[in-house]
Amino acid sequence: MAPGGAPGGAAGRRPPPPPQWTDPATGFLRRSVSPPQAGLRAELVEGTLPSGARIAYDGPSVPGLEHHLWLLSGQLELTVQEEVHRLAPGDTLRYRLWGRSAFHAPGPDPARYLLALVLP
Question: Within 10 Å of residue 103's Cβ, how many Cβ atoms?
Fold first, then answer.
């Protein structure tokens, strides 16, 4: 058994509040729900993008990074390598990111989503 009494290093305790960061330019809020940990490949992030905001990335932090996105509320236009995906609450999208991407919340409400990031 691993520390915490569960196999594989899992622990059955309530974690401290997740770290969060707000982009001052866009108002985008990023909460690290399940932060990266040595020996594990996935991270779970909650994102809230204000209505009308757009964030563009030139490329992933790690080429081939796997994304699993679940839109919780609002509307989201997600561009992955030049292909636009229009998402409504409850929609999911999964992909490997090799190039550019952009997130846009067309409104009228903020787009709130859960994103699982998995290292290749």
Answer: 21
